[in-house]
Amino acid sequence: MHQNGTMTDSGDFDAAWLPGTAFRAVGARRSLVRSGPDPLADTVRGELADACARFGGEVVRDGGAAEFLLEVTGGSPDDESYTLRRADGITSLTAPSGRGLLYGLFHVVRLGEGAFSGDLAPRTHRPALATRMLDHWDNVAVHPVMGQVERGYAGGSLFWSDGEARGDLGRVRAYGRLLAACGINAVAVNNVNVHATEARLLTDRIGDVAAIAGALRPYGIRTHLAVSFAAPMLLGGPDTADPLDPAVRDWWARATARVYEAVPDFGGYVVKADSEGRPGPFAYGRSHADGANMLAAALEPHGGTVHWRAFVYDHRQDWRDRSTDRARAAYDHFTPLDGEFADNAVLQVKHGPMDFQVREPVSPLIGAMPDTRLAVELQVTQEYTGQQQHVCWLGPMWSEVLRFRPDGEVPVGRLADGLVAVSNAGDDRFWTGHPLAQANLYTFGRLTWDPAADPRAVLDEWIALTHPDAPDRLAGGLHAILDGSWRTYEKYTAPLGVGFMVQPGHHYGPGVDGYEYSPWGTYHFADRDGVGVDRSVATGTGFAGQYAEPWAKLYESPGTCPDELLLFFHHVPYGHVLHSGKTVIQHIYDTHFEGVEEAEEARRVWAGLSDLVEPERHARVAERFAEQLRGAREWRDQINSYFLRKSGVPDAHGRTIH
Ligand code: GCW
Q1: How many angstroms does the Cα of residue 535 sit away from the middle of ligand 1?
Q2: Which end of the chain is less packed: N or C, by CB atoms within 10 Å?
Q3: CA separation for the pair 126, 567 (Å, rounded)
C-alpha cells in the first residue's frame, strides 16, 4: 500500500474520493441502522458492512449496543436532510428518509475520527438546491464527428459503447456512489444533441435507460433523458412536432407513460430546441413556453420535470453585421416568456451569455425571470478550459458565479432551483482523464449542496478524502498546483474576457482568428488599433443594458468595467490603461509570459510529490503536464505574436516574442 492510501479498491478503476481507507473511522465502530423498509437505508447498511469488514467494526442488530446510531425517522421520502449529534459517547445520525441518511453517512466519512470524539451539538444539514444534476453529452452510437462522448475527454461513455448499452453496471453503480458522496441527485444519460439512435432511448430502447436507472437508484440518483423535440416524427408518431397539435400532445403523453412504466422514479426530460440546428417549436410558429409546457404536461401526472435549455441563438451570423450579438440572444428570446412556463418546467441557463469560456460575465438572463424556475448550467467537462490535458480547477470560477448578485442582493446560488453541469467523467481508469480533474467533479457536487461554500475548503475535503493520511507536504503541493490553476489558464489563453480564440471544431489549442469571420457569433474584432466587442448601450450592441443595476452601469463604461471583462464589453485601443495601471497590450504580453511560468512551476511542484503519490497516478499527471506546458507555450507565442503584429507595439520588457 502506498503512503497516500489511494490504491484502487477494484483494480479496474480509481477509487477517487472514496478509497476504502476513507471509511476507517466508521468501519471501526459498532453501528446500528434503524429503519422501516427503505432501499437507501439498505445502501447505508451495505456501506457500513463493507467498511466494518475492512476495519474490524460491526453492524449490530436492534437491541445491540452501538457507538454509531443511524435512524430513518420517517417523513417525506424526498426530504434529503439529516441531523448529526454526538453525546455520551454515541454518535447519532437521524434523517427523515434513507436518502438523507446516506448523505449523512458520507458526512460522517468526511469527518472521520472527528465524528467519534468529544461532543457534537445537534446540527441539521440540508441541500440548498433541490436539483443537483449532471448532464452527460454521451452518444449511444459513435458520432462521426463528435465520437462517443461529445466534448468528452475521459475516454468512452460510462453508459454506452458503439451503439449498445454497456453491460458493466458495476461501474455505473460506482459512479452513482461517488456522485452521492458529493451530493449529486440526478443524471441525464445522453447527449442533448439527440441523434437518431439516441432518440430511440425514449421508446423501444427505454429498457437500456431502466437498467442504468436501476444502478444509480441505490445512491439516490434519478435518471433523466435528453429527448428530441422532433421525437414524434422520428419515432413513428404524427408527421409534425407542433406542440399545440392534439395528436402530438397525445403522442408525448403516451410515450411518457411508457417511460414511467419502465422507470417509475424517472426524473424527466432535458431539451435542446431551436439551438445549433436542433428541431424546436419555432418551426411551427410556437414559443419556447409552448414547447416546454407540452412536455411538462406529459410529465406532470408522473411527477417529472422538463429541463428546457435557454441556449438559443443565431448560429448563422455574418461577421459584418455588428448589431446581432450572440450574447444578447438568450435574454431576448426568453424574458418575454416569464411567467408562462409550467410549474414542472425549469429553464436551464448557461452561467455565461456565450459558451463556457474561461471568463465571462454571469448571464443577464439569470435573475431576469422571477416567475420562471431556473437551473444554472456549468461545464465540468473542460471543453474550453484545457480539455483535461491542462490542470484547471474551476471551483473559484463557479463560486464567483454562484455568489454573483444579479440584483445586487440575492446571490445566484439562492435564485436557482437547481444546478446542472456537463460531466467530465468517462470510462477512463481515473474517471476524468486528468486525475486532478476529479477535483472539479467533486467540487461541483459540493457546490450544488452548498453554493455558498468556500471552494478552497471543498478542495481540502477532496484532498483529504482522496489521499487519507496525506502528509501536509502533499496537501500543500496540491493546493499550490490547483488553487490558482484557473487564473493561470486564463493568463495564457484569450485575454480580458474576450473569449474563444480556439481552433475551430475541437476547440483545443490557440486559433486567434479560428472563429473570427465564422457564422457562430464569437468574435474579438481585433485590428491594428484595438480589440474587443462593444456591447455598451451607448455605442454597441446594448447587451450591457440587459443587466439590472448596479451591473448595467458598471459594465457600460470602460472606466468602470472590471479589467477581466473589459474586452467582453468594450472595444478599446491597445494603449488603453487598465485599472491595474498596465496598457491592454502590455497586459496581454505579461499575462502570457506569467501564465507559462506558473504552469512550469506547477509542474515542478508535481514532480516533487512523486514519493507521495502512487506511480500510475503520478505518471499520468506528469504526462499531462508535459502536454500542458507544450500547449501553454504555444498559446503564449500565438497570442503574443498575433498582437505584436496587429498593434506594432513592442513588449516593454524587450522579451522575445515568437
Ligand atoms: O459549447 C457548445 C459545444 C457543443 C454543445 C453546445 C451545447 C452539446 O461546443 O458541443 O452541444 O455547446 O451546449 O448545446
Answers
A1: 23
A2: N
A3: 40
- pLDDT (0 to 100) of residue 625: 98
276 is catalytic: yes
Alpha-helical (H) ranges within 22-164 are 24-27, 39-55, 98-111
| pTM for the whole structure | 0.97
Over residues 463-478, the mean pLDDT reads: 95
What is the per-residue pLDDT across 320-339, written as a single tens digit (0 to 9) for each?
Answer: 998 899 999 999 999 999 99
Contact partners, residue 285, CB within 8 Å, separation at least 6:
none
pLDDT by residue (tens digit) across 10-52?
Answer: 458 999 999 999 999 999 999 999 999 999 999 999 999 999 9
Query: Would residue 598 show up in a list of annotated catalytic residues for this protein?
Result: no
Mutate to test the pocket of ligand 1, among 383, 506, 520, 522 (most ligand atoms within 8 A of CB): 383
DSSP SS3 for 597: helix
What does the pLDDT read at residue 11?
54
State in Å: Cα 191 to ligand 1 middle. 10
> Beta-strand (E) ranges in 417-555?
418-422, 530-531
Single out the catalytic residue among 38, 198, 300, 355: 355
* pLDDT value of residue 63: 84
Question: Does ligand 1 have an atom closer than 6 angstroms to the CB of 160?
Answer: no
Whose CA is closest to 70, among 96, 94, 41, 48? 94
Q: Which amino acid is at 420?
A: V
8, pLDDT greater than 50:
no
The active-site residue, picked from 162, 276, 321, 527, is 276
Instruction: Output the average pLDDT for the chain.
Output: 96
The domains found in the chain, sorted by start residue, are 20-125 (3.30.379.10), 131-466 (3.20.20.80), 490-533+571-647 (3.90.1330.10)
The three grid cell numbers given for residue 656, joined into one nine-digit string: 522575445
Instruction: End-to-end CA distance of the chain: give it in Å, rounded.
Output: 47
Establish whether residue 150 lines the binding site of ligand 1, counting it when its CB lies within 6 angstroms of any ligand atom: yes
